[in-house]
Amino acid sequence: MLVGIVIFVLVLVGVIYYKTKQKQIAAKEQKELEEKRKKQELIRINFRKVFPEVDEKFSNLLKIIGKDEKMSFYRTEASKTFNELLRVFLNIVESDKRLDNLDKLRKGLLPSIKDTNTNDKITDESIEKSKILIERINKESNELKKYIANAKDEIKATGLDFIKAAAEIELAKASGQSVVLSKLKERSKNLEYITTQLPITLN
């Protein structure tokens, strides 16, 4: 009898521990999802500030697609493309920060080249090193500027793709035909490629 009670208590404790652990895991996952959602919302808000027209075109596309389950494929494709847009946008933000940092570094190095007559402590070797660094900074700055310009053009072009996709879907509603969103898929691949091409510092 006593053994049975002990076993029952142990099982009960085990069940309570398991349920408590499951609740803790679920709460942690919920918190992580909430943080991820807030972060994505913040990125979207910042994207809308810089590219309001593109954001509006995406929103209009989603409105035309609607919430019908039959249209979920279009919603998935459009959202995938938009998520790639946001990744490219984050790269633009990162590139802008790097440009600012490089500009500060360039400004910090320039006096070591210009003020050589008034400062005997600056050696020829030091001047040469500064020149090399400035040259590398200029090269990377130019690469970043090209990247940013290309990424911005791609984002704006995606806005036009959203309009075309919206028009095709709206026109297909009456006929009941399905639409192949090949242009959006292609654009999504382009954006994915651009995300991976962010210039990096080379020695």
Description:
The protein is built from 5 helices and no strands. It is mostly helical and 203 residues long. The model has no long low-confidence stretch (mean pLDDT 84).
Secondary-structure map with pairings?
Layout: H1 2-50, H2 52-65, H3 72-114, H4 124-175, H5 182-196
Task: Throw out a few tags for this protein.
single chain, 85% helix, 203 residues, 5 helices
Give a short synopsis of this structure.
By secondary structure, this protein is mainly alpha-helical. The chain has helices spanning 2-50, 52-65, 72-114, 124-175, 182-196.
Count of individual beta strands: 0
Beta-sheet strand percentage?
A: under 5%
Supply Rg: 28 Å
Number of helices: 5
What order do the SSEs take from the amino end to the carboxyl end, as H and E?
Answer: HHHHH
Structural class: mainly alpha
- Shape, principal axes of CA atoms: flat
- Biggest sheet, in brief? none
